[in-house]
Amino acid sequence: MKTIRASMFLTLLALCSLIGFVASSVLGAAARPNILVILSDDMGFSDLGCYGGEIRTPTLDALAADGLRFTQFYNTARCCPTRASLITGLYPHQAGMGHMTSSRSMLPGYQGDLRRDTPTIAEQLKPAGYATYMCGKWHVTKHERKPDEPNYNWPLQRGFDRFYGTITGGGNFYDPTTLCRGNKFITPENDAEYRPKKFYYTDAISDNAVKFLKEHAAQRAGQPFFFYVAYTAAHWPMHALPEDIAKYRGKYDGGYEPFRAARLARTKQLGLVNANWQMTPQAEDWAAVQDKAWEARCMEVYAAMVDRMDQGIGRIVAELKRQGQFDNTLIFFLQDNGACAEPTGRQSNAEQIKTTNYKPFGPDDLQPQIVPPMQTRDGRPVRTGPGVMPGPEDTYIAYGRGWANVSNTPFREYKHWVHEGGISTPLIAHWPAGITASQRNQLVHTPGHLIDIAATCVDVAAAPHPGPLPADAGRGRDSSPGNLSVRTTATDSPLPSLARGEGQGEGSRPKIAGAPALEGVSLRPAFEGKPITRQQPLFWEHERNRAIRDGKWKLVAKGADGPWELYDMEADRTEMHDLAAAQPERVKEMAAKWEAWAKRANVMPYPELKTPQPKKAAAGAPGRWPAKKADAWLNQRGWLLGCNYAPSTAINQLEMFQADTFDPVVNDRELGWAASLGFNSVRVFLHHLLWEQDPKGFLDQLDKFLAVADKHGIGVMFVLFDSCWDPFPKLGKQREPRPGLHNSGWVQSPGADVLKNPSRHAALRDYVGGVVGRFHDDRRVQVWDIWNEPNNLNDSSYGAQEPKDKPSFVRPLLTKAFAWAREARPTQPLTSGVWQGTWADAGALRPMEVIQIENSDIISFHNYGKLDELKQCVANLRRYNRPVLCTEYMSRGNGSFFEPNLGFMKEQRVAAYNWGLVSGKTQTIYPWDSWKKAYVGEPPLWFHDIFRADGKPYRPEEAAYIRKLTGRN
Q1: Confidence of residue 30 (pLDDT cuts 50, 70, 90)
Q2: SS in 3 state form for 674-728?
Q3: Which of 163, 238, 288, 836 is the S-S candidate for 155 at Cβ 3.0 to 4.6 Å?
Q4: How many CA atoms lie within 13 A of 708 on its CB side?
Q5: Helix (H), strand (E), coil (C) string for 201-215
Q6: At 754, which helix (H) or strand (E)?
Q7: Phi and psi (nearest 5°) for 80?
């Protein structure tokens, strides 16, 4: 069978080549141009000079001045999906790349590996007689890191004759991970064909592209070529050469706003932006930036990276001119997504690298890391965080949301999202032999999409669409005819949904029966000033952010639970005026079209992201919620906002609920203050000893507390266990606070004695089952937090009194506690919050964190850091594809403030619970270091809490900010 299939494939190639030869003879050389597709990485709409920016891009500006600029060209919001869509002419899910290469789903749309039945542009043009080359970032296969992994989806196996670049995405510009020549991993030191004095990846891509062009002219003169050049500039880390950084030194010292204003004015002057469109809000406040020199340097380096890329493109253009090929080369320049607001590397790793002991790499040693912790080739640790000036090879920093907001002027959102800031970027088309003189230096306002690039290439090359490749053609460790072995998987199945053949524009070529139909239309009519016709709307989905563009109307939403927003793109392309409420029928109609496309294009069903799965639940007990159920819960609740609440009159959770100290009058007064801020939730700690003392009385107290909270429109998250502070809790009268000491009387549940004694765990099971069982379907209870900070060793306070290897006692009990709670069949979700680190690497989670995440219906976490660290936490936890709750934040002394942290969490729909409401017996106005340092009187800066005991806000401006966010002004 393999022999027959291979023979059929060779026959097909011969037929296609004959068709291509005949077509070329008829159309003539001028109709069969060389094609050069240049892709940059993580750049915004207005970065280029010809799109309104101040960065020096003379080469691209010149191409635009002698070609076309598209003002409404769209990508897919992220690197891997964009690359899959670009090189196949399909929506990314149809090509198997609905998310990233890290995906491991068996669903057709989310395999993390380019599907074998979706031909690349190179595979489409080779039968028409084109030579095919690639330099740069590939990033469309899950087999990308190890030398012994299958390479069936590497460039040489997907239609390219020659390849120099990286298989994976991102990495150090001075020592990129997965650097390859052909099918072989290399290093900057052992590459015999390219040995510059200073290796810099942007230069390496440009120089090798020029090298390939020269060798093509020498060896294959007269044969047209397709060349795909995919830069990693300006993706983080911010790495640039000193001479380029020097050009921009001091340029960005004035901060964000002057550049947003100047870019807006310039884009309007150029006709790229309608003068009537409203500018989107500024993301960051320059006045609030603590290290302005560092922040400005980030943008200086970013600009230098773009500048260097333009220089390299200039060398490629110069080589085309030297060969006399420039006029008949169709050049596309485009970007893979909007500007990147990810906070990668913006947190300091100074403490972590103190203990590193790296050794220099040898010439053949491959760089194993894409992100820190990592080292330079000469053995230095790579540094991150404020104060580390980006640019050199031992730094690793992203330029941040403030500058990404500038790059995306004037649009909303960023990479990941499908609002205009995430998906709208430049497209420059240059082809003197094919673009009429009257169209040069003109703007094309008709919307275009990545899916149109392949259709255009097939059109201008007069190439027939070759159809899906045989599963065993070139799929082994090399592509030689004698090595056609293949590991057959579900990805070999055909895509019947693609056999539509619709959406083809003027000039599209015939396709072979059974091949996936190109989804895009040819842009060639625009080269002659003719209209581009499209039969179907344009569609998007990434990380459940979704959109449809149908004529002048765009429907867009954030996340699976986000409401649809409707915008008139002619009147309001900056998406500032949502018309969904005013036009519900249009919303319904467009949403139905999106749903139909999503089902056809392998977008749905959505996959569960690969995370550890919980152990099998007890017989008859439910398991962890599926993501769809968790999303529905969040959608019903909306944005949860509140605090960790202990009344000012209670030193701990025992005193809060013991019969003689439980005080509903105080609760009523203080929760009223919470409600005045717009809080709709509180997180409240319980204690198992209260249950053991008087189960009925304890449940009655909880019921009364819920009634008081409900009176104020506040729901409750109950915390069942807690590993913080005093490990020896006792019932009865609690001790008085120690002056000036943070949480001097808070107690653990269970304490050390119970934790170490399995014979007492049956009582804990009764406690969990009794409390959860009583309120398992009570609407006033919103969430069950099973265990607070289960691996907290309290080193700064009670560490010497803690059990040795405390986590080994907690881990099995935590697992049981989740199971006990599920046995009560709660209608509310279960969670336990991770609290140490940013969780960037799922493979590096602590054993306790694995238990927490794999058993939690919704993901919760603590973060008392600055905004950048908070952003990193949220971004890293999003991958678990469940709602995210921040159950502790706001510590003024650590730089964690309501503004801007709470505003960010509202924007992200991350539930937010600051620590503390009213200053009182817990004394959490004092910092944690009060256990090491004496404080007398009120501290100069409150650590936690919002109100004084009389109900007056500690900082009125904070209360006003919260009320503004909640609409309680």
Answers
A1: very low
A2: HHHCCCCEEEEECCHHHHHHCHHHHHHHHHHHHHHHHHCCCEEEEEEEECCCECC
A3: 163
A4: 21
A5: HHHHHHHHHHHHHHH
A6: helix 752-755
A7: -60, -50
In the chain, count H helices and then E strands: 26, 24
Kindly list the distances between the CA atom of residue 464 and the CA atoms of 84, 532, 730, in Å, as whole numbers in the listed order.
Answer: 20, 21, 81
C-alpha count within 13 angstroms, C-beta hemisphere, residue 42: 23
Q: How confident is the model at residue 710 (pLDDT cuts 50, 70, 90)?
A: very high
What tokens does 930 get? 């009060």
CA 310 to chain centre: 27
Q: Per the structure block, which two tokens stand in for 130? A: 């084109």
3-class secondary-structure state, position 782? strand
Residue 23 has pLDDT above 80, yes or no: no
DSSP state of 497: G
Q: Enumerate the H helices of 28-107 as residue ranges.
A: 58-65, 79-88
Tokens encoding 912? 């937010």
Q: How confident is residue 572, by pLDDT bands cut at 50, 70 and 90?
A: very high
| DSSP tag of 537 | -
Distance CA 415, CA 875 (A): 12
* 3-state per-residue secondary structure call for 261-329: HHHHHHHHHHCCCCCCCCCCCCCCCHHHCCCHHHHHHHHHHHHHHHHHHHHHHHHHHHHHHHHCCCCCE
> pLDDT tens, 577-625?
999 999 999 999 999 999 999 999 999 888 764 433 444 444 455 789 9
- Torsion sign over Cα 90, 91, 97, 100: positive
Contact of 938 with 691, CB cutoff 8 Å: no
Q: What would the pLDDT profile of 364-389 be if each residue is shown by its tens digit?
A: 999 999 999 999 999 999 999 999 99
Say yes or no to pLDDT of 492 above 80. Answer: no
> Of 99-103, 869-873, 896-900, which gets the smallest average pLDDT?
99-103
Provide the token pair at 4.
């027959």
- Residue 630's closest CA among 683, 563, 560, 541? 560
Q: In this structure, how many other beta carbons lie within 10 angstroms of the beta carbon of residue 738?
A: 12
Interatomic CA distance for residues 384 and 237, integer angstroms: 10
Which uninterrupted H or E stretch holds 402?
helix 400-407
**Which tokens is 550 given?**
């149908």
pLDDT per position as a tens digit, 34-59? 999 999 999 999 999 999 999 999 99
Helix (H) or strand (E) holding 664: helix 664-676
* pTM (2 d.p.): 0.65
Cβ count within 10 A of residue 741 = 15
Catalytic residues: 79, 139
- In degrees, rounded to 5, the angle at the alpha carbon of residue 301 between the alpha carbons of residues 295 and 303 is 105
CA torsion angle 218 220 221 223 (round to 10): -160
Measured N-to-C along each axis, helices 664-676 and 695-711 cross at an angle, to the nearest 10 degrees, of: 30
In the beta sheet, which residues pair with residue 184? 181
Distances (CA, A) of 452 to 377, 457, 532: 41, 9, 11
pLDDT in tens, 198-238: 999 999 999 999 999 999 999 999 999 999 999 999 999 99
911-915 and 781-788 as β-strands: parallel, antiparallel, unpaired?
A: unpaired
Nearest CA-CA partner of 537 in 467, 586, 607: 586
d(CA 741, CA 935): 7
Question: C-alpha distances in angstroms, 93 versus 99, 113, 115, 415, 541?
Answer: 8, 10, 10, 18, 9
Residue whose structure tokens are 């510059």: 196
Q: 481, 6 in Cβ contact below 8 A?
A: yes
* CA pair distance 395, 294, nearest whole angstrom: 13
